[in-house]
Backbone:
C-alpha cells in the first residue's frame, strides 16, 4: 500500500529503448504528479490511455517509435503544460485533437503515422471525411443516373413510336406492306392455334 502511494509522487519515468512490449497500462494515468514520460523506442502496442489528459502536470511526453494505434485521446488537449510531445512513427489514426498546445508542436512530432490528419500535419482531415461520406453521395449519383436513363428511354420510345406511325400514315406503300404483314401474322397465329387444338382433341 505504501509502495503504491509513493508511486503517485513520481515526477519522471524514462523507460526508453528497453524492448518493452504490450500495451501502456491504463493505471499510468493515476500518476498525477508525473512531469516527464518517455516510453520511446520500444514495442508497445494498443492505444494511448484515454485518461492521459488527467495527468495535468505533464511537461514532456515521448511515445515515439512504438506500435501504438487508434486515435490520439481527446483528453490530451487538457495537457496545457506540455513543452515537448513526440508521437512520431506509430500507427496512430484520425484527427489530431484541437488545442492550443497540440497544434503548437512541429509536424515532425506526428510524422510516421500515415492515417493521422489535421493541424499541424499538411494532410487535411476533410479528405478522410469525404471518404466516409462517399457511400451516400455515391447513392445520390446512382439515383440521378437511373432517373436520367428512364427519362431517356421514355423519350426514345415516344420518338420511335411516332416516327413509325408517321411513316405509315404518310407513305401509302409502307402502310399497305405493314397491314399485309399484320394479316399474314394473324393468319399464321390462327392456323397454328387450330392445328394444336385439333391435335389435342
Residues:
Amino acid at each position: 500500500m505504501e509502495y503504491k502511494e509513493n508511486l503517485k509522487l513520481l515526477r519522471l519515468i524514462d523507460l526508453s529503448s528497453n524492448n518493452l512490449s504490450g500495451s501502456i497500462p491504463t493505471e499510468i494515468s493515476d500518476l498525477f504528479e508525473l512531469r516527464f514520460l518517455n516510453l520511446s523506442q520500444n514495442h508497445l502496442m494498443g492505444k494511448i490511455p484515454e485518461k492521459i489528459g488527467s495527468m495535468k502536470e505533464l511537461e514532456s511526453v515521448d511515445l515515439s517509435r512504438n506500435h501504438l494505434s487508434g486515435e490520439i485521446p481527446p483528453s490530451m488537449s487538457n495537457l496545457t503544460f506540455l513543452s515537448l510531445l513526440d508521437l512520431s512513427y506509430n500507427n496512430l489514426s484520425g484527427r489530431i485533437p484541437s488545442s492550443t498546445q497540440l497544434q503548437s508542436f512541429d509536424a515532425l512530432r506526428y510524422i510516421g503515422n500515415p492515417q493521422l490528419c489535421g493541424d499541424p500535419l499538411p494532410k487535411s482531415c476533410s479528405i478522410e471525411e469525404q471518404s466516409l461520406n462517399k457511400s451516400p453521395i455515391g447513392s445520390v449519383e446512382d439515383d440521378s443516373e437511373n432517373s436520367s436513363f428512364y427519362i431517356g428511354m421514355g423519350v426514345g420510345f415516344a420518338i420511335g413510336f411516332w416516327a413509325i406511325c408517321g411513316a405509315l400514315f404518310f407513305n401509302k406503300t409502307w402502310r399497305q406492306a405493314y397491314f399485309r404483314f399484320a394479316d399474314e401474322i394473324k393468319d399464321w397465329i390462327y392456323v397454328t392455334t387450330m392445328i394444336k387444338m385439333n391435335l389435342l382433341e
Q: What stands out?
A: The chain is about 40% helix and 15% strand. The mean pLDDT is 81.
